[in-house]
Amino acid sequence: MDIGTMWKNPRNSEALKMAVGSVTELALCVARGDLRNGFAVVTPPGHHASRSQTLDSIVFNSVAIAAKQLQEQLKVKKILIVDWDVHHGSGTESIFYTDPSVLYISLHRYDDGAFFNGTGDPSRVGCDVGRGYNVNVAWSGGLRPPMGDAEYLAAFRTVVMPIAHEFSPNVVLVSAGFDAAEGHPAALGGYRVSPKCFGWLTQKLMELAEGRVVLVLEGGYELVSLCDASQACVSALLGNEPEPLSEVELLRSPCANAVCSLEKVLHVQSLHWRSVRSMLNTVSLSYVKAERRVSAGSEAALVLSGLNMTVPHRRQLPNEPVEDDETHSTVSFTRRTFSFQSRS
Hints:
It comes from Danio rerio. This is Histone deacetylase 4 isoform X7. It contains ten helices and six strands. By secondary structure, it is α/β, with parallel strands linked by helices. Strand 2, helix 4 and strand 3 form a beta-alpha-beta unit.
């Protein structure tokens, strides 16, 4: 639809303004502490809109406008924007490309620039004082095979969460597009991320900013997966434990194309973030193997700590208790209980 034609219809223009206003008000309420978190179900998506460019019916970049209002009205110092829509948020990247107070992390299909509008190369890291505050997890390799839960778990484990924790945001905004969810045709993404996985990703982000997380609907065109993924995210925001992910996906290593894509991101971002410099050694591991390695490393550190405490002429401190190893039946993560979903 032509922008001029759309604005001539008062219903269209009113809906656009209402959408961006709703997102801004929700973000302000969460940042002030009036609400713990929230999910704005608005349309159309906005992450392609920049200061000077629109795309079809995308006129306002609601997430970017909300971030700017958080800065101006509440003086929020550090804002994290995570964009898991399968299309790159070129507008959001452009708006904050020189801003070190806003960390933008996008996970999107890229295919070496052949998918969608070709933006979102992993080498684009920001410029001037904003250098290092733009992170593009750019998936390449087409649909051979399609990216799924194992790949997105690996991205969050090796890139998103380490950098996010190091940045330590005051508020987290999520451009929550669900067109990477299973059920979308190749032209719209063709990936196979399960709705349950989006709930898990949401719960991980709630570790940040004391849980001040705001999700904003972006893309998502397959109604069943859109509804299921949204429900999983809302459930996580309410504090419920996410449903168990598929055992197959938890045990599966990320595909070779995903490993290559993540390695490119890590090589670039390791120049800016210390937290990801050791991740190249684990990027090809399945979620289960990676968690077991972390658990083994933690236990070894406790043992070494105990040995150091017994060195002569140093004060002896009581040893910390070590948790039992339960990796045969559960996968350990933030809350130490990640159960498998049995295969039928």
